[in-house]
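Each field is set out as follows.
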Amino acid sequence: MTAQEQEFNTNPGRPGTISVGARLKARREQLGMTIEQAAQQLKLTKTQVAAIERDAYDTLPGNTFARGFVRNYARLLEIDPAPLLDDLVAWLPVERVQTALPKVHEEEAFAGRRNVGKGIQFYLSVAVSAVLSAGVGMWYLKSPASPQLDTQPALTVASEASSVLAVASEVASNTDGAAASASAASEVTAAASAPAPQATAQPTLAPTPAPTAAPAPTVAPAAPAVASKPAAAASAAKAASRASAVVGNGELRLVAEADTWVQVFDAHGNKLLSEIVKQGESRAIGGAAPYKLKIGNAPKTKVYLRGKAIDLSTYTKTDVATLELQ
């Protein structure tokens, strides 16, 4: 036996054999691995690895942990763990048998838990009921008495309104048809000539609330309808004149294959066109040449000058074309 083997512990169960910890230590040193490196790879502390190599298994958490540590250590050192685990039995300390706890019958334990649960439930229900009762009492004492609504004014106003409407209908039925038509025409004419705010303010001059509500639907809507006719006619005339100015038999023609923004000026700086031309639409423009054009969607816009197609690619930068045509 060499001097190194004499330093190793011997198995108490089998004299003359090297202990488990000594074999692991010898294999680690043979591989040139330090104890710190082994502890790092095994995810153990240096003290625990040293205890395994000294066969001090009583310092480890327990025999189960000791077996696991030795198995992992052997696999790390590329040793078969089965013989080591067999020899490890003789080195493990005798664990103290745990004292058995007194058995409790299941029925008694369940009955005890049930009684405790019932007692807690009872006290909780009493406490919740007391809190709710106190809250309701405080709210009832602090809440003001409900005010009584006085409906008499509303009934009076309604009766007055119905009476006024009855008188108005009777007068209207007795009035001659020709006189009624003339008065209605004069009212519509006055409403059309007067501004809209005066027509809407007319009901406020009535002496009682009920009569103001009755004539409002007949006079107020008539004023915007009549007054809107001149405005609509003016806007239509303006649109027609603009269309005739833009669309025509001009020498400059634009066709939009997709929505595009177009701006055109003539030689005198007059703005001939500045709008978004919708997809499928075209514009024909005439004026004093040269024309200055700026087109927002040049790849999708066709330009013709006196029937000749203009190539916009040479004037286009990032889909915007700026050019001057003579």
